[in-house]
Amino acid sequence: MLNILKKTVLAVVALAMMSGMSFASSSVVIKGSTTVLPIVQAAVEAYMKANPGVQMSVSGGGSGEGIKAIVDKTTHIAMSSRSIKKEETALAKSRGSNPMEHVVAIDALIPIVHPRNKVSGLSIDQLSQIYQGKITNWKEVGGEDLKIVVISRDTSSGTFESWDHFVMKKTKVTPRAQMLASSGAVATAIAKNRYAIAYVGIGYLNKNVKALSVNGVTGCADTALSKEYPLSRELYMYTNGEPTGEAAKFLTFLKSKQGQKIVAKVGYVPTMSLK
Fold first, then answer.
1. Are residues 207 and 259 in the same domain?
2. Is residue 2 predicted with pLDDT exceeding 50?
3. For position 18, what pLDDT does the model report?
4. Sign of torsion, CA 180 57 67 261?
5. How far apart are CA 38 and CA 268, in angstroms?
6. Closest to 232 measured CA to CA, from 126, 155, 124, 131
7. pLDDT band at residue 110 under the 50/70/90 scheme
8. Based on the domain organization, do 141 and 215 belong to the same domain?
9. What's the pLDDT tens digit per position in 146-159?
């Protein structure tokens, strides 16, 4: 599937260069958040299987890149793990674009550590102090006498901005932090480093990392949906105005019960009851 998507990306980009974003009516370009990416890849695979004449390309790069593509009119749909900023909306409108928001899933932002780490939960204040570089050893939060390695998403990421909103509250991340470009890279780094801490969307949890509770609450589908979990958030897609054509059909599919089952299958939280 990934090879098919890569080939489609090249074909659509070439078409865009020739026609100035005048895409074929049966093609859909989607760019942005790596948090939302697993949902969209799975949904696109199902949608293309049901609609074999449709061409779709999907690429990551971060929420900021996706929203920039909507502003610049170089994508039909932008994936984002944060809501669009006022200044981004203003810039879009100055360029003749009108970003429209679509909530496609619910997420829980989960702190993760290596499975051998003895710590099982942290408070928001402890997380903030770790990421500011004020807490530097796991023994300070009930763990072993080991130096903490801080791993973060890069600043173009919507997940980074969500972490800033919930945890950092505008304080600075320590300059010693390793800044990684994708959620997949973060999860891989934690699985290989006994000393490290990071954060990912709930869909990136796997057996190779250990999820930490926050303020005594475990992040899961129920606590994310109820907002009991303190790091719960919506996941978005943006279009330039009301979507039309194949983009509109795909969004309708993703928001439908069938599409939301895909959301649940890849580990995120549906926006509706699937019972």
1. no
2. no
3. 32
4. negative
5. 9
6. 124
7. very high
8. yes
9. 999 999 999 989 99
Indicate if the pLDDT at residue 65 is higher than 70: yes
Distance CA 20, CA 11 (A): 14
Residue-averaged pLDDT of the chain? 91
Give the CATH number, domain containing residue 159.
3.40.190.10
Q: How far is CA 166 from CA 87, 153, 183, in A?
A: 21, 14, 18
Query: For tokens 């609450």, what's the residue?
Result: 217
* The total number of structural domains that make up the chain: 2
Contact 21, 29 (CB under 8 A): no
CA distance to 16, 36, 156, 199, per residue, from 159 (Å) = 29, 10, 9, 8
Whether 270 is covered by a domain: the verdict is no
How many angstroms separate the CA atoms of 203 and 213, rounded? 16
Output the pLDDT for position 274: 85
pLDDT at residue 199 in the model: 98
SS3 258: helix
